[in-house]
Amino acid sequence: MTEQPLLEARDVTKYFGNVIALHGISTAVRAGEVTCVLGDNGAGKSTLIKTLSGVHRPDKGEYLVDGEPARFASPRDALDRGIATVYQDLAMIPLMSVWRNFFLGSEPTRGWGPFRRFDVVAAKQTCRESLLAMGIDIRDPDQPVGTLSGGERQSVAIARAVHFGARVLILDEPTSALGVKQAGMVLRYIVQARDRGLGVVFITHNPHHAYPVGDRFLVLNRGRSLGDFGKGEISREELTRMMAGGAELEQLSHELERGADSEVAAVGRDLGDTAQQLGSGSVPMD
Ligand SMILES: Nc1ncnc2c1ncn2[C@@H]1O[C@H](COP(=O)(O)OP(=O)(O)OP(=O)(O)O)[C@@H](O)[C@H]1O
Ligand SMILES: [Mg+2]
Fold first, then answer.
1. What is the pLDDT along the chain (286 residues), one digit of tens a residue?
2. 50 lines ligand 1 (CB under 6 A)
3. For a disulfide at 268, which of 123, 165, 250, 257, Cβ 3.0-4.6 Å?
4. How far is the CA of 45 from the centre of ligand 2 (A)?
5. How many domains, in total, are found in the chain?
6. Could you identify the atom of ligand 1 that is nearest to the CA of residue 22?
7. 234 and 261 assigned to the same domain
Protein backbone atom coordinates (compact mmCIF):
# COMPACT_ATOMS: atom_id res chain seq x y z
CA MET A 1 0.00 0.00 0.00
CA THR A 2 2.02 2.95 -1.24
CA GLU A 3 -0.80 5.34 -2.01
CA GLN A 4 -0.74 8.58 -0.02
CA PRO A 5 -3.45 8.64 2.66
CA LEU A 6 -6.12 11.34 2.36
CA LEU A 7 -6.12 11.68 6.15
CA GLU A 8 -3.61 10.49 8.68
CA ALA A 9 -3.47 10.65 12.46
CA ARG A 10 -0.03 10.08 13.97
CA ASP A 11 0.24 9.37 17.65
CA VAL A 12 -2.71 11.62 18.48
CA THR A 13 -3.46 12.31 22.15
CA LYS A 14 -6.45 14.30 23.38
CA TYR A 15 -7.24 15.31 26.95
CA PHE A 16 -10.47 16.62 28.42
CA GLY A 17 -9.25 17.94 31.75
CA ASN A 18 -7.92 14.84 33.50
CA VAL A 19 -9.62 12.42 31.12
CA ILE A 20 -7.35 11.01 28.43
CA ALA A 21 -9.92 10.54 25.66
CA LEU A 22 -7.29 9.42 23.12
CA HIS A 23 -3.87 8.05 23.85
CA GLY A 24 -1.29 7.86 21.05
CA ILE A 25 -3.71 6.86 18.29
CA SER A 26 -2.47 6.42 14.71
CA THR A 27 -4.50 5.57 11.65
CA ALA A 28 -4.82 6.40 7.96
CA VAL A 29 -7.72 6.87 5.55
CA ARG A 30 -7.07 6.11 1.87
CA ALA A 31 -9.12 6.72 -1.25
CA GLY A 32 -11.28 3.75 -2.16
CA GLU A 33 -11.01 2.22 1.31
CA VAL A 34 -13.31 1.91 4.30
CA THR A 35 -11.59 2.46 7.65
CA CYS A 36 -13.74 1.16 10.50
CA VAL A 37 -13.37 2.55 14.01
CA LEU A 38 -14.74 0.14 16.60
CA GLY A 39 -15.02 0.36 20.36
CA ASP A 40 -17.38 0.33 23.30
CA ASN A 41 -19.11 3.39 24.81
CA GLY A 42 -16.59 5.99 25.85
CA ALA A 43 -13.77 4.34 23.88
CA GLY A 44 -12.96 7.63 22.14
CA LYS A 45 -14.52 6.98 18.71
CA SER A 46 -16.39 10.28 18.47
CA THR A 47 -13.40 12.17 19.85
CA LEU A 48 -11.20 10.63 17.16
CA ILE A 49 -13.54 11.56 14.31
CA LYS A 50 -14.02 15.04 15.74
CA THR A 51 -10.25 15.37 15.60
CA LEU A 52 -10.25 14.15 11.99
CA SER A 53 -13.07 16.54 10.99
CA GLY A 54 -11.67 19.70 12.57
CA VAL A 55 -13.83 20.02 15.69
CA HIS A 56 -11.02 19.18 18.16
CA ARG A 57 -7.30 19.86 17.98
CA PRO A 58 -5.02 17.10 19.20
CA ASP A 59 -3.03 17.96 22.34
CA LYS A 60 -0.15 15.84 21.07
CA GLY A 61 0.69 14.16 17.80
CA GLU A 62 0.12 15.11 14.20
CA TYR A 63 -2.84 15.32 11.88
CA LEU A 64 -2.14 15.26 8.15
CA VAL A 65 -4.32 15.93 5.11
CA ASP A 66 -2.83 14.79 1.79
CA GLY A 67 0.45 14.20 3.56
CA GLU A 68 0.73 17.72 4.98
CA PRO A 69 0.18 18.80 8.58
CA ALA A 70 -3.24 20.43 8.86
CA ARG A 71 -4.85 22.69 11.41
CA PHE A 72 -8.52 23.44 10.99
CA ALA A 73 -10.17 26.34 12.76
CA SER A 74 -13.61 24.77 12.27
CA PRO A 75 -15.48 21.91 10.59
CA ARG A 76 -16.16 24.32 7.70
CA ASP A 77 -12.40 24.36 6.95
CA ALA A 78 -12.44 20.56 6.87
CA LEU A 79 -15.44 20.59 4.53
CA ASP A 80 -13.59 22.97 2.20
CA ARG A 81 -10.85 20.32 1.97
CA GLY A 82 -13.46 17.70 1.05
CA ILE A 83 -13.86 16.10 4.48
CA ALA A 84 -17.58 15.64 5.16
CA THR A 85 -18.97 14.29 8.42
CA VAL A 86 -22.43 12.80 8.83
CA TYR A 87 -23.33 12.94 12.52
CA GLN A 88 -25.77 10.54 14.07
CA ASP A 89 -28.24 13.31 14.86
CA LEU A 90 -28.29 14.46 11.24
CA ALA A 91 -28.27 18.17 10.55
CA MET A 92 -31.56 18.08 8.63
CA ILE A 93 -34.85 19.87 9.03
CA PRO A 94 -37.64 17.28 9.43
CA LEU A 95 -40.49 19.44 8.11
CA MET A 96 -38.61 20.46 4.97
CA SER A 97 -38.73 18.39 1.82
CA VAL A 98 -36.00 15.96 0.84
CA TRP A 99 -34.72 18.17 -1.96
CA ARG A 100 -34.63 21.34 0.20
CA ASN A 101 -32.63 19.46 2.79
CA PHE A 102 -30.35 18.09 0.11
CA PHE A 103 -29.34 21.65 -0.87
CA LEU A 104 -29.44 23.18 2.59
CA GLY A 105 -26.74 25.86 2.65
CA SER A 106 -25.71 25.35 -1.01
CA GLU A 107 -28.79 26.27 -3.02
CA PRO A 108 -28.35 26.46 -6.82
CA THR A 109 -29.46 29.86 -8.14
CA ARG A 110 -30.66 31.30 -11.44
CA GLY A 111 -30.41 34.83 -12.75
CA TRP A 112 -28.09 37.52 -11.60
CA GLY A 113 -27.83 40.30 -9.00
CA PRO A 114 -31.24 41.29 -7.60
CA PHE A 115 -32.89 38.72 -9.89
CA ARG A 116 -31.03 35.81 -8.38
CA ARG A 117 -33.36 33.15 -7.10
CA PHE A 118 -33.36 29.57 -5.99
CA ASP A 119 -33.68 27.33 -9.05
CA VAL A 120 -36.35 24.92 -7.81
CA VAL A 121 -36.69 22.85 -10.98
CA ALA A 122 -32.95 22.29 -11.26
CA ALA A 123 -32.67 21.55 -7.55
CA LYS A 124 -35.36 18.87 -7.59
CA GLN A 125 -33.91 17.25 -10.69
CA THR A 126 -30.33 17.26 -9.36
CA CYS A 127 -31.50 15.85 -6.06
CA ARG A 128 -33.42 13.04 -7.73
CA GLU A 129 -30.54 12.24 -10.11
CA SER A 130 -27.83 12.11 -7.48
CA LEU A 131 -29.96 9.96 -5.19
CA LEU A 132 -30.65 7.61 -8.09
CA ALA A 133 -26.96 7.52 -8.99
CA MET A 134 -26.35 6.01 -5.55
CA GLY A 135 -29.24 3.60 -6.13
CA ILE A 136 -31.50 5.49 -3.71
CA ASP A 137 -35.07 5.61 -4.93
CA ILE A 138 -36.97 8.17 -2.86
CA ARG A 139 -40.57 8.01 -4.04
CA ASP A 140 -41.15 11.71 -3.85
CA PRO A 141 -38.43 14.36 -3.29
CA ASP A 142 -41.21 16.73 -2.14
CA GLN A 143 -41.97 14.62 0.91
CA PRO A 144 -40.73 16.00 4.25
CA VAL A 145 -37.48 14.46 5.49
CA GLY A 146 -39.26 13.73 8.78
CA THR A 147 -41.38 11.10 7.01
CA LEU A 148 -38.33 9.13 5.82
CA SER A 149 -37.06 6.13 7.73
CA GLY A 150 -33.78 6.42 9.66
CA GLY A 151 -31.96 4.46 6.98
CA GLU A 152 -33.33 6.62 4.16
CA ARG A 153 -32.30 9.74 6.04
CA GLN A 154 -28.75 8.45 6.46
CA SER A 155 -28.75 7.62 2.74
CA VAL A 156 -29.79 11.14 1.75
CA ALA A 157 -27.03 12.56 3.96
CA ILE A 158 -24.46 10.26 2.33
CA ALA A 159 -25.67 11.10 -1.21
CA ARG A 160 -25.54 14.81 -0.35
CA ALA A 161 -21.91 14.57 0.83
CA VAL A 162 -20.96 12.65 -2.34
CA HIS A 163 -22.78 15.16 -4.57
CA PHE A 164 -21.00 18.14 -3.03
CA GLY A 165 -17.63 16.60 -3.80
CA ALA A 166 -16.53 15.01 -0.53
CA ARG A 167 -13.30 13.04 -0.82
CA VAL A 168 -13.57 11.72 2.70
CA LEU A 169 -16.86 10.65 4.24
CA ILE A 170 -16.94 10.26 8.03
CA LEU A 171 -19.99 8.44 9.43
CA ASP A 172 -20.58 8.35 13.20
CA GLU A 173 -22.61 5.24 14.04
CA PRO A 174 -24.88 5.45 10.97
CA THR A 175 -26.30 1.96 11.56
CA SER A 176 -26.66 1.81 15.34
CA ALA A 177 -30.30 2.93 15.52
CA LEU A 178 -31.40 0.81 12.54
CA GLY A 179 -32.95 -2.61 12.07
CA VAL A 180 -31.23 -5.31 10.05
CA LYS A 181 -32.72 -4.38 6.67
CA GLN A 182 -32.09 -0.65 6.92
CA ALA A 183 -28.60 -1.17 8.31
CA GLY A 184 -27.96 -3.34 5.24
CA MET A 185 -29.11 -0.50 3.01
CA VAL A 186 -26.75 1.98 4.65
CA LEU A 187 -23.88 -0.53 4.40
CA ARG A 188 -24.57 -0.76 0.66
CA TYR A 189 -24.19 3.02 0.28
CA ILE A 190 -20.95 2.89 2.22
CA VAL A 191 -19.65 0.37 -0.32
CA GLN A 192 -20.90 2.56 -3.18
CA ALA A 193 -19.15 5.64 -1.81
CA ARG A 194 -15.96 3.58 -1.51
CA ASP A 195 -16.33 2.30 -5.08
CA ARG A 196 -16.58 5.89 -6.26
CA GLY A 197 -13.14 6.40 -4.80
CA LEU A 198 -14.01 8.14 -1.53
CA GLY A 199 -12.17 7.38 1.65
CA VAL A 200 -14.80 6.33 4.19
CA VAL A 201 -14.47 6.33 7.98
CA PHE A 202 -17.18 4.15 9.48
CA ILE A 203 -17.74 4.24 13.24
CA THR A 204 -19.71 1.41 14.78
CA HIS A 205 -20.12 -0.78 17.85
CA ASN A 206 -21.03 -3.74 15.70
CA PRO A 207 -18.29 -5.98 14.26
CA HIS A 208 -20.91 -7.71 12.08
CA HIS A 209 -21.61 -4.39 10.36
CA ALA A 210 -17.93 -3.45 10.12
CA TYR A 211 -16.42 -6.70 8.87
CA PRO A 212 -18.21 -7.11 5.52
CA VAL A 213 -17.51 -3.53 4.35
CA GLY A 214 -14.24 -2.63 6.09
CA ASP A 215 -10.73 -2.62 4.63
CA ARG A 216 -9.08 -1.54 7.89
CA PHE A 217 -10.20 -1.95 11.49
CA LEU A 218 -9.05 0.33 14.27
CA VAL A 219 -10.20 -0.99 17.64
CA LEU A 220 -10.29 1.47 20.55
CA ASN A 221 -10.60 0.69 24.22
CA ARG A 222 -10.73 3.51 26.77
CA GLY A 223 -8.80 5.85 24.51
CA ARG A 224 -6.11 3.33 23.59
CA SER A 225 -5.70 1.39 20.39
CA LEU A 226 -6.04 -2.40 20.60
CA GLY A 227 -4.68 -2.48 17.05
CA ASP A 228 -5.15 -1.21 13.52
CA PHE A 229 -5.65 -4.22 11.28
CA GLY A 230 -5.90 -4.76 7.55
CA LYS A 231 -8.68 -7.11 6.47
CA GLY A 232 -6.21 -9.93 5.86
CA GLU A 233 -4.78 -9.57 9.37
CA ILE A 234 -7.89 -10.26 11.40
CA SER A 235 -10.88 -12.59 11.12
CA ARG A 236 -14.47 -11.68 11.91
CA GLU A 237 -14.29 -13.92 14.97
CA GLU A 238 -11.15 -12.24 16.28
CA LEU A 239 -12.67 -8.82 15.74
CA THR A 240 -15.86 -9.85 17.56
CA ARG A 241 -13.90 -11.32 20.45
CA MET A 242 -11.84 -8.16 20.74
CA MET A 243 -14.98 -6.03 20.77
CA ALA A 244 -16.94 -8.22 23.14
CA GLY A 245 -13.97 -8.44 25.50
CA GLY A 246 -14.26 -12.24 25.95
CA ALA A 247 -12.05 -12.17 29.07
CA GLU A 248 -14.10 -9.41 30.70
CA LEU A 249 -17.35 -11.28 30.02
CA GLU A 250 -15.93 -14.40 31.65
CA GLN A 251 -14.85 -12.45 34.73
CA LEU A 252 -18.30 -10.87 35.02
CA SER A 253 -20.01 -14.24 34.70
CA HIS A 254 -17.92 -15.69 37.58
CA GLU A 255 -18.78 -12.74 39.78
CA LEU A 256 -22.50 -13.06 39.04
CA GLU A 257 -22.55 -16.83 39.48
CA ARG A 258 -20.98 -16.47 42.91
CA GLY A 259 -23.85 -14.18 43.95
CA ALA A 260 -26.63 -15.59 46.16
CA ASP A 261 -29.55 -14.63 43.91
CA SER A 262 -30.47 -17.55 41.65
CA GLU A 263 -31.75 -15.37 38.81
CA VAL A 264 -28.55 -13.37 38.77
CA ALA A 265 -26.55 -16.58 38.80
CA ALA A 266 -28.49 -17.77 35.74
CA VAL A 267 -27.58 -14.57 33.90
CA GLY A 268 -23.99 -15.24 34.93
CA ARG A 269 -24.08 -18.76 33.43
CA ASP A 270 -25.51 -17.35 30.21
CA LEU A 271 -22.70 -14.85 30.00
CA GLY A 272 -20.22 -17.62 30.66
CA ASP A 273 -21.64 -19.60 27.73
CA THR A 274 -21.41 -16.54 25.49
CA ALA A 275 -17.81 -15.95 26.54
CA GLN A 276 -17.01 -19.57 25.72
CA GLN A 277 -18.66 -19.36 22.32
CA LEU A 278 -16.65 -16.23 21.61
CA GLY A 279 -13.52 -18.02 22.74
CA SER A 280 -14.15 -20.95 20.39
CA GLY A 281 -14.87 -18.61 17.49
CA SER A 282 -18.51 -19.63 16.93
CA VAL A 283 -20.20 -16.30 17.10
CA PRO A 284 -23.95 -15.79 17.17
CA MET A 285 -25.04 -13.32 14.50
CA ASP A 286 -27.26 -10.36 15.39
N1 LIG B 1 -16.33 17.58 25.22
C2 LIG B 1 -15.93 16.73 26.19
N3 LIG B 1 -15.63 17.17 27.43
C4 LIG B 1 -15.22 16.32 28.40
N5 LIG B 1 -15.08 14.99 28.23
C6 LIG B 1 -15.36 14.49 27.03
C7 LIG B 1 -15.82 15.32 25.94
N8 LIG B 1 -16.04 14.54 24.86
C9 LIG B 1 -15.74 13.28 25.24
N10 LIG B 1 -15.33 13.24 26.53
C11 LIG B 1 -14.88 12.02 27.27
O12 LIG B 1 -13.94 11.35 26.46
C13 LIG B 1 -14.15 9.94 26.50
C14 LIG B 1 -14.39 9.40 25.09
O15 LIG B 1 -15.65 9.87 24.62
P16 LIG B 1 -16.21 9.63 23.13
O17 LIG B 1 -17.45 10.40 23.00
O18 LIG B 1 -15.12 9.89 22.17
O19 LIG B 1 -16.53 8.06 23.17
P20 LIG B 1 -17.26 7.16 22.07
O21 LIG B 1 -16.35 6.02 21.77
O22 LIG B 1 -17.70 7.99 20.94
O23 LIG B 1 -18.51 6.61 22.89
P24 LIG B 1 -20.03 6.28 22.39
O25 LIG B 1 -19.99 4.92 21.81
O26 LIG B 1 -20.80 6.27 23.69
O27 LIG B 1 -20.47 7.34 21.45
C28 LIG B 1 -15.30 9.71 27.45
O29 LIG B 1 -14.78 9.40 28.72
C30 LIG B 1 -16.02 11.04 27.48
O31 LIG B 1 -16.68 11.25 28.69
MG1 LIG C 1 -19.64 8.46 20.12
1. 558 999 999 999 999 999 999 999 999 999 999 999 999 888 999 999 988 888 888 999 999 999 999 888 888 888 889 998 887 666 677 788 888 888 876 666 666 666 667 778 888 888 888 888 777 777 788 888 888 877 788 888 888 888 888 999 999 888 887 788 888 888 988 998 999 999 999 999 899 999 999 999 999 999 999 999 999 999 999 998 888 765 565 666 666 666 667 777 777 677 777 766 665 444 444 4
2. no
3. 257
4. 6
5. 2
6. 14
7. no
214 and 286, same domain (yes or no)? no
220 and 273 in a single domain? The answer is: no
Q: 6 and 13 in contact (C-beta within 8 Å)?
A: no
Question: Which domain does 285 fall in, by range?
Answer: 245-286
Tell me if 24 CB under 6 Å of ligand 1. Answer: no
Q: Which residue owns the Cα nearest ligand 1 atom 30? A: 42
Same-domain check for residues 177 and 229: yes
Distance CA 274, CA 253 (A): 10
**Domain CATH for 98:** 3.40.50.300
Which atom of ligand 1 is the closest one to the Cα of 220?
21
CA distances from 49 to 189, 207, 238 (A): 20, 18, 24
Q: Is the pTM of this model over 0.90?
A: no
Determine if ligand 1 sits within 6 Å of the CB of residue 35: no
Domain annotation covers residue 1: no
